[in-house]
Amino acid sequence: MKIAVIQLAYGDGDTESLPERVARVADLAATHGAGHDLVVLPELWTAGCFAVDDWADRALTIPEGGIPEALEPLAEVTRRIGAVLHTGSVVERSEDAGPEGRHLWNTSLVLDPEGMRLATYRKIHRFGFGQGEPKHMEAGDELVIGEFPAPADGLTVGLSTCYDLRFPELYRAQLDEGAEMFVIPAAWPAPRVEAWRLLLRARAVENQCFVVACNTAGTHAGQQMGGFSVVIDPWGTVLAEAGTEQEVLSVQIDPGAVAEARERFPVLADRRL
């Protein structure tokens, strides 16, 4: 399986409209995703993870069984290059309010090679300690684990987003549902980037899974973003890692490495809890 991880960068001085940003990202996905089986984008790139004041204006309605019209250029890319595309995440606006009375969610969409919606994940753990996401967004409550279609098949994939990474019980739950790879879009800031790097390797090692993590570069509302997107194998070996600027990783992985690692070092069989 060949994976492209597109670490986007944009700054507070950018004046891109939403259609302009989507068009730019679609061009990047078409250029760098060609010849790959899976393409991954970062969290909330359509609105800015810390740009709370822009969330409502840039929120997208996700039609039942479909994708937002604003993301159609990305669907066209998947049809052109024949890859599965993880769109990172967007601010979703729902018609019905959630349990806490809010209409916004941090939502990931995965598109199949025909440009159709394959999977949807609403971020479970909201970052902000009562502000930011907890103040403006609802929390998801469903694990999302499943098989991607060809050409990105061969592994069972668990979806999560950014701050979820700090909660290992989420990944254990995905492991128990058969996960062999975790795909994690993020907008993780620079001051805590060493925690990002450490926790990603920990999730790979403790669960003997591949980790594909796509972070953001640039700035969001004055926050310097951390970069260091990465692909890690089930032994915790870093196969490729980005720096702190916009960058694309291209990584070939062997789906059989998960079963091999679990057979050679059967630590998961010794779990007591």
Topology:
Layout: E1 2-7, E2 9-10, H1 18-33, E3 38-40, H2 52-55, H3 72-81, E4 84-86, E5 90-93, E6 104-111, E7 117-122, H4 133-136, E8 145-147, E9 156-159, H5 168-176, E10 181-185, H6 193-207, E11 210-214, E12 217-220, E13 223-224, E14 230-232, E15 238-241, E16 247-252, H7 257-264
Parallel strand pairs: 1-3, 2-12, 3-4, 9-10, 10-11
Antiparallel strand pairs: 1-16, 4-6, 5-6, 6-7, 8-9, 11-14, 12-13, 14-15
Q: What's the total helix number?
A: 7
Q: How many beta-strand runs?
A: 16
**Whole-number count of domains:** 1
Report the helical percentage.
Answer: 10-25%
- Under CATH at level 1, the class stands as Alpha Beta
For this structure, the quaternary state is single chain
Biggest pleated sheet: 7 strands, mixed
C-alpha Rg (nearest Å): 17 Å
Terminal Cα span? 33 Å
* Overall morphology: globular
- Please name the CATH topology: Nitrilase/N-carbamoyl-D-aminoacid amidohydrolase
Rounded average pLDDT: 96
CATH architecture: 4-Layer Sandwich
What's the CATH superfamily, by name? Carbon-nitrogen hydrolase
